[in-house]
């Protein structure tokens, strides 16, 4: 029980409360509540529904209310007067450490955390001000940080007094709506570092349950107040919530926690509170922490497809699924969901084709189970366009590629080669579909008008096929492209609905056309007379095939001057024109091409950045990581040939390293799971050392003759990887 030290502070919530009552009976307490008992889990009000109905076809988000809430605020009770400052507290701590007498510190902690009113009295910047707005929580963040940073360095009885006070506050009977002082107390208590200890998890769970059950208006305040927390403290709270979820799913010592059947609300409560912090993080640009800091890798080890199917099947019900909160699912886990969902769709489509064939009394053919693409290298784009257009009904079958005149069998390698060559040709500047911007090193859609946008649909279908068949592509689109690709993530039933249109900002333009964006930013910050000095109107000009064309950004834009008052509107309309309106038909065709292959509710789980990673993989090559994860056949990693190989490869330039990766795997990109996911293998070739290395790209396998020295190996390897196009059979 209580005397067992930090690891055994509280075996159960009720044992702790019983001990508190016994001590109170002995010494008395002026603030003793009338009843200190653990609520019966069966009688506590269930949490509100926290499920995203997939039928609504929209991404999970925390709805934020208008900045000014019209509902009247509950009256704030008067707070006790507490005058202790940060300096006073630090002096008390120093004296206690020096003398060993912790009475003053113990009194401060036990008093401060005894109730929500006392928490506000201690940490509210001005107890006479209401602080009823989302802009300012009124919390003295510096004082909170100092008090919490010192807490874990105090004696056990001081730490126990804090937890005892928290229990007092949590067990208070609430009448009517929560006050802003209550919300302030919740915001402060969430930052308590004691909740990193599993012995406090029962108390922590009840705190999270109360916060999760607050009204939407209260959540609105907590979201905006949370974004003002320091980065260090914010990250600590997020990590603490993730650890709580992980240890409840896979407890190291199950006996430390109540049975799962009695606390099934723990994980939903913690996840909903985590969603508030994710919403707060997304309101800041740049965000407080990376979106990847919300990933919980523990979820990679649960039955993800069951989670996914629960989310799909039960819709807006009381059944919890992590898919309702996709920010917590790692990109590796999302890739698994998308791959398995794709495989199930492939099997379903292939089975239907087989049934149709048999029902017509026709002989089944194995080729009918695949999307077979047959192309000539000399007519790669036109042949591919024709094949995909003719076989649109087969796009969701497993892809197999054949190059006319070559004997290669496609076990995955030819598919990678087809993607690589096709993308290289389509994105060539001479082709005219995309414009390469040297300043940003990315491609963007050409705004030239044409009669047929089918080739843009082909590029979209290629990207869809790549995700569907788990192939990474060397495409350099800006992040804005993937944001547009998820607008909306599910193709609307009404074909008149606009697609690929999203809110765009000057930051989006900076990622594509930094020079133009810089100029527009200068316009916004110009201190002179914009109308007289710039002499611009709400009309822009673009060159198309040597002809200058004008476009009005709004009706009669050519007659509306840009002024100091309307320049923000001008910049926003200009950015929207460049990234949305001027390329609408091109991008709409691209959008429909992608979703013709990748239509899946799994896309609702993805952020734009995650779509980019799934499509392109990672451009960062870590050859040391590849060395650590490589398997060997016929060789040992200590053999001279293998040592020569890695000495040479680790000394290669980035360009040669990419060529090696392309030679051995068919792609120079790293998959979502990193180099380890390549399952790279080096096999011993019995061929003469006069031969060049050979690769089986289907299996990410390099066959290496036992070269006698490093110089010979380097020479043969560079020749091999620099002249690698085409396939044959051994």
TrEMBL record:
Catalytic activity of the protein: S-ubiquitinyl-[E2 ubiquitin-conjugating enzyme]-L-cysteine + [acceptor protein]-L-lysine = [E2 ubiquitin-conjugating enzyme]-L-cysteine + N(6)-ubiquitinyl-[acceptor protein]-L-lysine
InterPro entries: E3A/B/C-like, HECT_dom, Hect_E3_ubiquitin_ligase
Keyword Ligase in annotation: yes
One GO term of the biological process aspect: protein polyubiquitination
Role this protein plays: E3 ubiquitin-protein ligase which accepts ubiquitin from an E2 ubiquitin-conjugating enzyme in the form of a thioester and then directly transfers the ubiquitin to targeted substrates.
Catalytic machinery residues: 698
Protein name (database record): Probable E3 ubiquitin-protein ligase HECTD2
Keywords from the named record: Ligase, Phosphoprotein, Transferase, Ubl conjugation pathway
Species per Swiss-Prot/TrEMBL record: Tachuris rubrigastra
EC category: transferase
Annotated SMART domains: HECTc
Pfam families, A to Z: HECT (PF00632)
EC identifiers of the protein: 2.3.2.26
Pathway given in the UniProt record: Protein modification; protein ubiquitination
Domain HECT residues, every copy: 391-730
Record bears the keyword Acyltransferase: no
GO molecular function, one term: ligase activity
């Amino acid at each position: 029980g209580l005397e067992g030290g930090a690891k055994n502070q509280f075996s159960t919530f009720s044992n702790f409360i019983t001990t508190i009552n016994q001590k109170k009976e002995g010494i008395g307490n002026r603030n003793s509540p009338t009843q200190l008992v653990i609520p019966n889990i069966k009688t506590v009000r269930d949490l509100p529904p926290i499920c995203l109905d997939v039928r609504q076809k929209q991404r999970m988000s925390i709805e934020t209310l208008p900045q000014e809430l019209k509902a009247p605020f509950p009256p704030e009770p008067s707070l006790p007067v507490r005058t202790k400052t940060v300096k006073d507290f630090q002096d008390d701590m120093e004296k206690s450490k020096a003398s060993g007498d912790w009475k003053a510190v113990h009194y401060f902690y036990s008093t401060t955390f005894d109730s929500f009113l006392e928490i506000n009295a201690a940490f509210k910047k001005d107890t006479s001000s209401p602080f009823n707005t989302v802009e300012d929580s009124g919390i003295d963040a510096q004082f909170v940080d100092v008090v919490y940073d010192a807490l874990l360095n105090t004696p056990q009885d001081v730490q126990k007094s804090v937890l005892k006070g928290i229990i007092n506050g949590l067990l208070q009977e609430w009448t009517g709506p929560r006050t802003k002082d209550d919300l302030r107390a919740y915001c402060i208590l969430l930052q308590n570092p004691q909740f990193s200890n599993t012995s406090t998890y029962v108390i922590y769970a009840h705190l999270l349950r109360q916060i999760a059950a607050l009204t939407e208006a209260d959540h609105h305040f907590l979201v905006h107040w949370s974004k003002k927390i320091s980065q260090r403290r914010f990250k600590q709270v997020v990590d603490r919530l993730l650890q709580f979820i992980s240890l409840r799913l896979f407890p190291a010592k199950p006996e430390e926690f109540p049975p799962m059947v009695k606390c099934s609300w723990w994980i939903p409560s913690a996840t909903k509170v985590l969603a508030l912090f994710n919403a707060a993080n997304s309101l800041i640009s740049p965000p407080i922490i990376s979106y990847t800091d919300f990933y919980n890798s523990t979820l990679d080890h649960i039955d993800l497809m069951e989670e996914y199917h629960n989310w799909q099947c039960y819709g807006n019900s009381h059944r919890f699924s992590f898919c309702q909160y996709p920010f917590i699912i790692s990109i590796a886990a999302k890739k698994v969901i998308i791959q398995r969902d794709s495989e199930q769709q492939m099997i379903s489509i292939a089975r239907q084709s087989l049934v149709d064939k048999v029902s017509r009394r026709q002989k089944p053919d194995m080729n009918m189970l695949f999307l077979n693409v047959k192309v000539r290298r000399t007519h790669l784009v036109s042949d591919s366009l024709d094949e995909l257009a003719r076989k649109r009904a087969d796009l969701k079958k497993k892809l197999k590629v054949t190059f006319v005149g070559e004997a290669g069998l496609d076990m995955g390698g030819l598919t990678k080669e087809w993607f690589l060559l096709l993308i290289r040709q389509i994105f060539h500047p001479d082709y005219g579909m995309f414009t390469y911007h040297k300043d940003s090193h990315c491609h963007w859609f050409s705004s030239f008008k044409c009669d047929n946008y089918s080739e843009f649909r082909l590029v979209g279908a290629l990207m869809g096929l790549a995700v569907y068949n788990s192939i990474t592509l060397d495409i350099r689109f800006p992040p804005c492209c993937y944001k547009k690709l998820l607008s909306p993530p599910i193709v609307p039933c009404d074909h008149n609905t606009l697609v690929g249109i999203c809110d765009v900002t000057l930051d989006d333009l900076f990622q594509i056309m930094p020079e133009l964006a810089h100029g527009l930013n200068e316009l916004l910050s110009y201190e002179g007379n914009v109308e007289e000095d710039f002499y611009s109107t709400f009309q822009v000009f673009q060159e198309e095939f040597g002809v200058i064309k004008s476009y009005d950004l709004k009706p009669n834009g050519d007659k509306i001057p840009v002024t100091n008052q309307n320049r923000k509107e001008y910049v926003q309309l200009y950015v929207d024109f460049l990234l949305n309106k001027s390329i609408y038909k091109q991008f709409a065709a691209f959008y429909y091409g992608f979703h013709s292959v990748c239509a899946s509710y799994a896309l609702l789980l993805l952020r734009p950045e995650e779509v980019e990673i799934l499509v392109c993989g990672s451009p960062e090559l870590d050859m040391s990581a590849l060395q650590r994860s490589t398997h060997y056949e016929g060789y040992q990693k200590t053999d001279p040939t293998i040592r020569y190989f890695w000495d040479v490869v680790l000394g290669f330039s980035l360009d040669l390293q990419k060529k090696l990766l392309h030679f051995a795997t068919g792609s120079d990109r790293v998959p979502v799971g990193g180099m380890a996911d390549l399952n790279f293998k080096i096999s011993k070739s019995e061929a003469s050392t006069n031969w060049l290395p050979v690769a089986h790209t289907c299996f990410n396998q390099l066959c290496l003759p036992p070269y006698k020295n490093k110089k010979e190996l380097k020479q043969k390897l560079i020749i091999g990887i620099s002249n690698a196009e085409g396939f044959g059979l051994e």
